[in-house]
Structures are given as structure tokens and as C-alpha cells.
Amino acid sequence: MTRTPAPNSDGRRSRAGWRARGRGGAPAGSGGPSAAPRHFRWRSHLSFVVIAAAAAALLWRAVNLQLVDHGFLSSQGDARFSRIATIPAHRGTITDRYGEPLAISTPVDSVWVNPQELTLDSGPIARLAAALQLDPQELARRVTSNLDRSFLYVARHRSPAEAQRVSDLDISGVYLTREYQRYYPAGEVTGQLLGFTDVNDAGQDGLELAFDHWLAGEDGEKRVIQDRYGRVVQDVESIRPARPGRDLVLSIDLRLQYLAYRELKRAVRDQRARSGSIVLIDVNSGEILAMVNQPSFNPNDREQMEPDFYRNRAATDIFEPGSTMKPFFVAAGIASGKYNDRSIIDTSPGYIRVGSRVFEEDGGNLGRIDIATILARSSNVGMAHIALSLEPKQIWTTLTDVGFGRVTASGFPGESAGLLSSYAHWRAIDVATMSHGYGISVTPLQLAHAYATLGSLGILRPVSFLRADSAPAGQRVLDERVCRELIGMLKSVVLAEGATGARAYIPGYSVAGKTGTAFKAIAGGYSTNLYMSVFAGIAPASNPRLAAAVVIDEPSAGEHSGGLVAAPVFSAVMGGALRLLAVPPDQPIGDAPATETAQTMPRHAARVTHGITVARR
């Protein structure tokens, strides 16, 4: 029997009995109320673990980003917006001894593109090509073949007008950068002497190369912020300031350089010669005041960059100097004590046999003559007599002491040492031919240097392309007495009757020098119609200030002797230089010496008749 709560007085059952029952009909206190709190605690624990794990993951990620991957992420951010920009350094200026600019660096703009940004449509590339005067197809090919790069030069060293045209195009991916370009105000007058630089303004030849370490600056660096188009929006910091190059003051006198260039160019043109060179040296300091060559080239015109044009022949090319070597054999003879300015040499009967060779006098039998006449008439027989009477070592010592057979101290790139063999290998025929200027090779610079040593009365001073504030001490290689006697005898080469160097005469100034003409060596022997015409000397002879050597290669206008081809050039250049330098005249201005006659003027450098070899004067 089931019990039910008793009804109330109003007949309804008590609500307390119903409330005492559970939801499932179980009465209160049967276990239902404790299940709900346990379920809630389990869920709260799970939520806490999940939240803690997430917080730990976030904390680990923050530590990883800030500490572990910070460097990588920072570099990636910088790579997108920060750049290291180069600050180009200004190359030093080259000037002549009086400050006239010979080489300067001017600011220019270069055009570069980012192939990854540049629109590959034909329109922008065609407009850029038109502004730069480039082939549109070639420009498009260059851009499309470098799509993996972010930097590509398309034009270097453009004028401000061209750079402005490119800037006005406002093409995405096209940029301008500031650089420097070398400019040579004197052009071809100093071209072979100065050399040139490459597109990056680094010395490649001539004095630009020799003093590149001095002229070249050091580029600087700075950190910048760029926008997505590569435009600099902010300079962040200076990493390293640019160090400009240092200026270089040369010994060259631009006035004399122009003078020598003009006279040499005229002579090479009038004589229809292959080439020519002139070197002018200050006797008292060894400074090179002028050095020119023909043909020349303009370093401002890159299309003329051919080795045959930009080679400095005065320092690099060697030749057999002919009779201009005779004064140094005479110097060896005087130094030996066997000869002086009063010595008489018997040249009869007009030839000399050396071994199987016979050297015949070009002007006939001169008989008994002094050494001054031997030099004035360029007597091969008389010179052979002197040379063969000397010890080979004495001759070799004299020649090497004045600078033959070794490079000078100029430091010019590619300078030749010439050719002078050891005296241990000389035979009598070698000594005889060398006394006539064969079997020995020199450069125009060496020849001028040797005569400068003679003009400084035996003091060998190093030649230099740099201006000297004071004369270097030098080294004595010849006795002063020897030099004075020799200079006195060399004056007769210009003043004596029938002398070979009459056309080297300079009004108001005494000249001591020597002509030279030599056959050119070819494969298998010597040419019979190709000549080297030479004159070398010093002035004023009473107190030498300048020394010069003039070399004309292969004159073909009818004359070929040094007295007729090279001596007039020497007179014009040396005379003009002495006047420009305000050197006081040392003799009255009178009539020029008589021009050489056909009988006294040698017409050939050497000839062979009936087995007799005639050496050239």
C-alpha cells in the first residue's frame, strides 16, 4: 500500500512532499545534488589548462621573436626598406706646375633599372630607349634577360640634359645615380702622357695609372630608408664618410707642352712621317717639362682608345739612336785620359776596316781632324778610331752611368729600359757599330735624360713627372771637366762650316747637340729606305737650362737626315721654351750658320757598295 501525504484542511496535499522529490521522482537525499558540482569542476580545470597552454605558447613565441629570431627578422625588415648607399669619392685633380687643370672629375648621372619593377610593356622601354638614344629591342633584351636582378645599369655617365629627360619620364623602376667622369681640358695635347680612367674612374694608363693610389679616393657608405619604389626617403646614419682623392701637381708646363705638340705635329705632317716624339727636361732639376707624341689621341673620346694611339712612345718605344750616341763615346775617351779637345784623329784614307767589314766616310776622306770636327761632320771613321782605342768596360760604364740600358726613375707605366748588352760579349765590330749608334737601343726619354746629365756637368738627377720644390742632389757620373770639353765640341755641330746640325741654331742662344740618322731594323737586317731622324741637345750651351730629344720615325717627304728633319723641330721647341721661361740669351743675335750642302750633308744612314759598308752619321 502506497502512502501519500495527508491532505490539508482544504483537501490539498502538502507541497513540501512534492518539493522533497527529485527531478526523476527521487526524494531529496537520494544522491542527485552532488553530481552537478563535480562535472563543473572538471570543465573549469580543462579550460584553465587550455588557457595556460595558449598563454605559454604566446609567451614562447614572443621570446622567440624578440630573442631567437630577432636578428633574422630585423635583417629581413631592413632588406625591404633599409639600404646601404655608396657615397662616391671625388678623384683628385691633376694640374700642371702652375695650377692649370689637366684632368678633372665632373659629376654626371648614370641610369639604372630594377628589372623586377620595370614594366615590360613596350611603351615604357621604348620611351626610355628614345631618351637615351638606345636601340629599343636591345634594351628590352637586356632587361628581360636579367629579371632575377634588382640592379642593372642601362647608361653610364650621361649629361645633365639626358638625365633630366629620363627623370621627366617618371617610369617606375628607372632610377638615376650620381657618379664622376674624368675630363681632360687639354685633350690630345696631354693624352698619351696622362693616360685615362675606366668607367669607374680608376686609372688605366699613363700617369692616371702610375699615381692611381694618390688620386683615387675612398667611397663612403651611409644607411638610408627607401620606399617601395626605391626612392630614398630618409638618411638614417653615416657609416663611413667618403675620402676624396688627393690632387697631383705635375712638372709639366702646359705652355711648353702646347708648343712641343704644335711643332711636332707640323713636322710629322710635313715630313709625312709615321710617328714622332719630343721630350724636354729641366737640366737643373730633372723635371720633365714637356713630353709629346704623334699620332696622339683625345682621352675624352672613347672611340679613339686604340693602343697604337694612346701608347706613350717617348717612354715605351725603343730605337737605334744613330750618331746621337757619339758624344758619349767621346766622353768615355776624354775620361780615359787618352783624348781631349785638342786631340787629332787621322781618318785617312777615308775608311776603316774592322774585321771583315769596311766603314767608309760618307763625305769622303777628311784627313787629320780634331774631335770637334768629328762630331760636327759626324765622322764614322774618326769615331770608330776613338771607340776601338778604348777598353770596352770604360765605354760600358760611361753609357750605363748616364742612364742607358736601364729604366729611369720616372715611374711611367710600361717604360722600356732599352737594350745595352754586357761589354763581356763585345767584339771589335760591335764596338765600332755602337759608336755609330747601332747595336744599342734607347727611348727618347733616356736620350733626353743622358743629354740633361751632360748639361748638368756630369750630375745624374732622377727624372720626374712631379713638380720639385728644390733640385735633388743627384749623383756625379761624369767629371765636370769632361762635360765642359764635350759641350764646347758639341757647339761646333751647330756653328761649324759644313756641320750637320746647322738647322738647330737658335738666335740669341748657343746650342750644343748632335744629329743622328739611322736605318731602321727589319726582319733579316736593316731597311734601305726607312730611317729614324734624331736630334738631341742642350741650351744655352754656356749655362745649360734645358735638354731635349726629337725623334721622327720614317720621314718620307724626301729628306730623312736628322739635321734636316729633326734639328729644325729642336730649334723651334727649344727656342720657344727658353723665351717662355725668360732664360737670358747668351750670345748676340746674328746670322744663322750656312745650311749644309749636298756634299757635306749625309744622304743615307748606311749603304753597301762593292762589299764596303758605309755607316750612317
Description:
The protein has 617 residues and is α+β, with helices and mostly antiparallel strands. Among the domains are: 103 residues, Penicillin-binding protein 2a (Domain 2) (Alpha-Beta Complex), CATH 3.90.1310.10; 272 residues, DD-peptidase/beta-lactamase superfamily (Beta-lactamase, 3-Layer(aba) Sandwich). 34% of the residues lie in helices and 22% in strands. It has 21 helices and 23 strands. Strands 2, 3, 4, 5 and 10 form a 5-stranded mixed sheet that branches. Strands 12-11-21-20-19 form a 5-stranded antiparallel sheet, with helices on both faces. A hairpin with a 5-residue loop joins strand 11 and strand 12. Helix 13 packs across helix 16 and helix 13 crosses helix 19.
Short précis:
With 617 residues, the protein is α+β, with helices and mostly antiparallel strands. Among the domains are: 103-188 and 198-214, Penicillin-binding protein 2a (Domain 2), CATH 3.90.1310.10; 319-548 and 574-615, DD-peptidase/beta-lactamase superfamily (Beta-lactamase, 3-Layer(aba) Sandwich), CATH 3.40.710.10.
Keywords:
disordered N terminus; alpha+beta; 617 residues; Penicillin-binding protein 2a (Domain 2); 34% helix; disordered C terminus; elongated; 5-stranded mixed β-sheet
